[in-house]
Design a protein that fits this description.
Blueprint lengths: L3 E11 L2 E11 L2 E6 L5 E7 L5 E3 L1 E6 L13 H7 L6 H8 L8 H17 L2 E9 L7 H12 L5 E7 L10 H11 L3 E4 L7 H18 L2 E6 L9 H12 L5 E5 L8 H14 L2 E4 L10 H6 L4 E3 L16 H11 L5 H10 L2 H6 L15 E3 L5 H7 L5 E4 L2 E2 L2 H10 L4
Parallel strand pairs: 1-4, 6-7, 7-8, 8-9, 9-10, 10-11, 11-12, 12-13
Antiparallel strand pairs: 1-2, 2-3, 5-14, 14-15, 15-16
Length: 415
């Protein structure tokens, strides 16, 4: 009996197997066949022409409520965040908060749609998306992201992270707004403990974020130690709390830029805690002059991935949800330019990022979910060199409608 597929990809080159080409059969949203010789009929047949086919890209860190807001404000926050060894990073957050006085779901959703449609075009099918929740932003960003999550379901999977950007202890009403965000349907509880004024407040921030996560049975994401201060210790506090709570594998740390200034013995201690907590680290080296010690963490067996972080906002003027571009930039900033290191970078925007976000079956193997990109490149080197749009993007076993996504990126309209 002749096999029937929804999609049949012919002449695909896989990572780690440069000498042979395979055919990939997809049915009912899954990879069902992966063979050098594969016969059958399909509704769609795609010839990869010897180019690389891999898992689709995953972005574990994007401040999605803020995309394309750069033009709404001056550049003071950008200068403060990136200048003087990140010594004014807290001041940058306070400056950037001014835009939230204008927050309204009506204009945020249009910007969000543009960014998410661009993600689909570049093969980025999963995003952990942060929405500020505080007395200024209120719930406008969360509502916009939840709306986009439903609109893009089956195309780009969005994990909405309710994010206490301006603090928990220092921000009046943050606990109330965060609870309301979780009741609305946010997927992840987000914190930023390092910006609290005292060590005791940092600990309280961490504890109460985990309290909320346990109450709603949600994962945790926290931006930790995001400044040029080697005395910051919120990464350690987060890892210890995850271990105490039995939340191993359900907590993800972001930035950890102060790690660049830590003494080596303390780096080793933190790496050991991260492994015990099964806690990954998201690094965004292109958005600030300091960054986590990625290569050392990888060498210690810690899960590390890369995030886009920002798209044209108060912290970063560029970005297009292209994770190959992020990996290309990271290759230079982290000096990861050997063949082995380039493969590691590719993992950090695909399988590592999926693992960090608890996305199941994000692998190119039989039985896995069919979230794939067909690149216009025969290997990872060329893919990183050019970081161009994939030839085809498959999400949940279906081809992305490129024309529709192009339209959404131009207009911000869904219908």
């Amino acid at each position: 009996m002749t096999a029937q597929f929804d999609i049949l990809i012919k002449h695909a080159r896989l990572r780690g197997k440069p000498e042979s080409l395979v055919n990939i059969g997809i049915s009912d949203g899954q990879i069902v066949s992966l063979e050098e010789r594969l016969s059958g009929e399909a509704k769609s047949v795609i010839d990869a022409e010897g180019n690389l086919v891999t898992e689709s890209f995953v972005n574990p860190h994007l401040h999605l409520c803020k995309v394309y807001t750069l033009q709404m404000m001056d550049e003071e926050a950008l200068t403060a965040y990136q200048g003087e060894g990140m010594g004014k990073a807290m001041n940058a957050i306070e400056l950037a908060a001014r835009v939230k006085e204008k927050y309204d779901e009506a204009w945020i959703i249009k910007n969000v749609r543009k960014a998410v449609a661009q993600a689909a075009i570049y093969g980025n099918t999963h995003i952990r998306a942060f929405a500020d929740v505080d007395s200024k932003a209120r719930l406008e960003g969360v509502k916009a992201l939840i709306r986009a999550r439903e609109e893009f379901k089956g195309i780009v999977e969005i994990q909405v992270c309710a994010f206490a950007q301006d603090g928990w202890v220092r921000e009046p009403g943050a606990d109330k707004f965060m609870r309301q965000a979780m009741e609305l349907g946010a997927d992840v509880v987000g914190g930023i403990p390092w910006i609290e004024y005292t060590d005791a407040d940092v600990q309280q921030h961490v504890r109460e974020i985990f309290d909320l996560a346990q109450e709603f049975n949600k994962d945790v994401s926290m931006l930790v130690d995001d400044a040029g201060d080697p005395g910051l210790r919120s990464l350690e506090a987060m890892a210890v709390e995850a271990i105490k709570r039995g939340w191993q594998g359900r907590a993800l740390a972001h930035h950890a830029r102060a790690m660049a200034l830590y003494p080596q013995p303390y780096v080793q201690k933190v790496a050991a805690l991260l492994k015990q907590a099964k806690m990954g680290v998201v690094s965004d080296p292109h958005t600030g002059p300091l960054h986590a010690r990625v290569k050392e963490l990888l060498a210690e067996g810690v899960t590390v991935c890369l995030g886009q972080d920002d798209i044209s906002d108060a912290y970063y003027p560029f970005g297009r949800n292209n994770m190959l571009e992020v990996a290309f930039l990271a290759a230079h900033l982290l000096w990861m330019t050997t063949s082995r290191e380039m493969e590691m970078l590719y993992d950090m925007v695909t399988v590592n990022a999926a693992q960090a976000m608890n996305i199941m079956n994000h692998q190119l193997k039989v039985g896995a979910n069919a979230n794939l990109v067909i690149l216009d490149a025969p290997n990872v080197l060329e893919a990183l060199r050019n970081h161009i749009t994939p030839s085809c993007v498959i999400s949940n076993g279906k081809l992305i409608d490129r024309a529709r996504m192009d339209s959404v990126t131009r207009t911000g309209d869904w219908e």
